[in-house]
């Protein structure tokens, strides 16, 4: 009898196949490990719903995914649970249809009208604080016309009305708003939208001439078309030469006066253009605002809890060049009663990350937005600085959900701003009197604040 020959199994005859299988098994094991070991801050009852294909294909030259900022967090103190998408859509549609502006309290405020040298009226400090307590009529911008492009003009009875304004007034549910001025960012499409979201939510992106020119350069919008839309975003051109010289201040108008630009909307989401939304906006509003029964939801700042900490960082990192102006602003707030954060306050922090703001358009939220905008025009567009001052001083009080930074980092992707050789236009080029905000012992009105913040006060 002949000897039995044992052949090598086919699986092991190919070294390439062996290495491929080893690589595959290793990748699967690592994926499973990181999936179950990494802390998650968001939970869905149906993780694959919503799921939507990309909304728009950009040319490679545009680079919409350049400069992404990676984030890693090892813990999450308050995870967010998202309900089933279709259940949320049904509930949100009922809320919007069964409630009008009056039931949300939006029409209980009246806005002052008139003409002024600036869009916000250039109000004195005494005039601004007069609106903080149960104001029925309040200054809230629009003392000059908000100069939306005249493209898309239609005859309407005996006058002409911009098609953009008509679309803004017709947005009567949820509106998502962003803005790019001075070509400071890229237009990035929201991800994870449900199949019904674009039917019931409005997406508006406000841009200026510099940004429009860049969009024309990449052939993203046509010079001949009167209707500009890029993916989910309806593009609205604003003639910024009639507003403020500083591009950041122009961006503050749609950021805080959404309720005036979209007077019939019941809910809104502001998202800075440096962010890409990766969770359906209805899920966000439902989980962070509706279920929490609050007027507004905003993330806590990742590093600071005290207002003056943020003010010092603003000066130190040259986020605003007029350090003397920052000092005057903080001294004004300290003199009028601004206190550092403590556990006695009903809020977990005095400093937000205001890149993402979710609102119910109630009278309280609208009042807060108007008051904050007036402070920004009076001093500078750094909106984290007057946040606690306005929130703590206003009446009625704002019911706010300041959620964890880890949640913010999982519902958005953050990108760096467009890099320019000329540098960012962040403020007036004035001589910086101090390297820091309160150097050389010049703190006067804020001395008590600083002592309490540092834990040195005897009070």
TrEMBL record:
Keywords: Membrane, Transmembrane, Transmembrane helix. The keyword Transmembrane helix applies. Residues 115-417 form the TOD1/MUCI70 glycosyltransferase-like domain. The keyword Transmembrane helix applies. It holds the Pfam family TOD1_MUCI70. The chain crosses the membrane at residues 16-36. This is TOD1/MUCI70 glycosyltransferase-like domain-containing protein. The lineage of its organism: Eukaryota, Viridiplantae, Streptophyta, Embryophyta, Tracheophyta.
